[in-house]
């Protein structure tokens, strides 16, 4: 059965080119009304213009779809609020939000400025916060919402020269983890995409042959799945070149140490048990850690039966 979005309204940020453009076009092709948001401008966040977003809207309309362009800077909450209002005024709802807009200010931590660090956090992390916040009440009121945050292998695993970008990209995972809990009773599902694609962001960094395989169109199906009616929730989906995977944050089972060994030396002595992958799992919520640890302590202290 084909997955469609008829009657659904989607906002895709940074949709003037690259991944966002591909997400917007495919959503529209499958029936969604799409807000093509893009500030325009350069990879480092400087400049701006509406041509890119308008061109994508024209492309969607030429194919028989419905779309409107929006030039809001996702880092500016006032502009984002106005974008959401404009969407609701025109189409009555917002079902899907794909937080995709992004910039780069790569520099080693030693050489980078705090100004660049803040700007990257502002666009990626606060941009995602702003758009999610502006859509949140709309989604709660209609008891339906699908949000995707765009993370990156740089955030999940690290990448030289990308402390600012990696921090922002891991930040959106933290946002997702709690939004999932707060949105559950309103059928708002929040997932993350970790893409790898040949766009202006990666041009020159990836060998030509790989670049040709890593088309945005191979990533987009992951986003479409993550914003579908039957979407999963709290999933970090990785996608590129037609390959798909899931990343998880896991915690080892760990070990309880008796009071005399609750020392740095005790930890060093029991490191293998503490860090052992055996029994490691993905906690559903933060409080599980507290429950697990106190349970282990009570067992260790003989306060409960093993
Ligand atoms: P891109 O540079 O081709 O597209 C990003 C778009 O976002 C641009 O059109 C830009 O004008 C827009 N934008 C930038 N700042 C904005 C703002 N403040 N408000 C509204 N729009 C703004 O980049 P690409 O590769 O398509 O990246 C899309 C997303 O995927 C980004 O979040 C990026 O960090 C992420 N990503 C991309 C990877 C890749 O391999 N291309 C790898 C991992 C993550």
From TrEMBL:
Organism in which the protein naturally occurs? Pseudohalioglobus lutimaris
Keyword set, alphabetical order: Oxidoreductase
One of the record's GO molecular function terms: oxidoreductase activity
Q: What is this protein called?
A: 3-oxoacyl-ACP reductase
Give the InterPro entries listed for this entry.
Answer: KR_dom, NAD(P)-bd_dom_sf, Peroxisomal_Beta-Oxidation, SDR_fam
Q: Which residues form a coiled coil?
A: none
- The superkingdom of the source organism is Bacteria
**Sequence similarity:** Belongs to the short-chain dehydrogenases/reductases (SDR) family.
List residues of the Ketoreductase domain. 8-204
| Record keyword Nucleus present | no
Q: Name one Pfam family in it.
A: adh_short
């Amino acid at each position: 059965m084909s997955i469609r979005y008829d009657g659904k309204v989607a906002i895709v940020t940074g949709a003037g080119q690259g991944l966002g453009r591909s997400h917007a076009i495919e959503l529209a092709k499958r029936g969604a009304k799409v807000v093509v948001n893009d500030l325009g401008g350069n990879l480092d966040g400087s400049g701006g213009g509406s041509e890119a977003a308008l061109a994508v809207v024209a492309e969607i309309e030429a194919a028989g779809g419905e779309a409107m362009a929006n030039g809001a800077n996702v880092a500016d909450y006032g502009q984002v609020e106005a974008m959401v209002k404009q969407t609701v005024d025109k189409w009555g709802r917002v079902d899907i939000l794909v937080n995709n807009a992004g910039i780069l200010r790569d520099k080693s931590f030693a050489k980078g400025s705090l100004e660049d660090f803040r700007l990257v956090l502002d666009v990626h992390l606060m941009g995602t916060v702003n758009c999610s916040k502006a859509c949140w009440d709309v989604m709660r009121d209609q008891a339906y919402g699908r949000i995707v945050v765009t993370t990156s292998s740089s955030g999940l695993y690290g990448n030289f020269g990308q402390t600012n970008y990696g921090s922002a990209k891991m930040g959106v995972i933290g946002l997702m983890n709690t939004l999932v809990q707060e949105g559950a009773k309103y059928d708002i599902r929040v997932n993350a995409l970790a893409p790898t694609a040949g766009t202006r962001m990666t041009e020159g960094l990836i060998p030509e042959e790989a670049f040709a395989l890593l088309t945005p169109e191979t990533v987009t199906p992951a986003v479409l799945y993550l914003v579908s009616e039957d979407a999963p929730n709290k999933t970090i989906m990785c996608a590129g070149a037609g390959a798909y995977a899931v990343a998880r944050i896991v915690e080892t089972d760990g070990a309880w140490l008796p009071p005399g060994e609750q020392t740095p030396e005790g930890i060093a002595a029991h490191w293998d048990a503490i860090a052992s992958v055996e029994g490691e799992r993905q906690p559903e919520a933060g409080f599980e850690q507290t429950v697990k640890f106190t349970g282990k302590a009570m067992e260790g202290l003989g306060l409960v039966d093993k």
